[in-house]
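Handoff note, outgoing to incoming analyst
You'll be picking up this chain. Sequence as last confirmed:
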Amino acid sequence: MLIDGRASVQFGGDRTLWLRVTSVCDKPTYDGWVWLTGYSIEPITGKALTRREVFAQTAGLQIQRHTTKNAPSPANAAPRTRGRGV
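Most recent structure output, in case you need it:
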């Protein structure tokens, strides 16, 4: 999930956060806000860095599918062969 200034002013500008969400707190909070727990991730590799708890506006959260630049896309992946491979 991409969390930037649209979700909370603390993540504005160059403080944007990529968060791999592991849980969403179900306790009541301000209308339109939510506590998220997860791991900040390194945007290039997708490697988990540190555990974080974040308070953010749900309307500003951006769900993104993270892919690493080195991973082949299904369209560009080498075809698999069965048996000995020719």
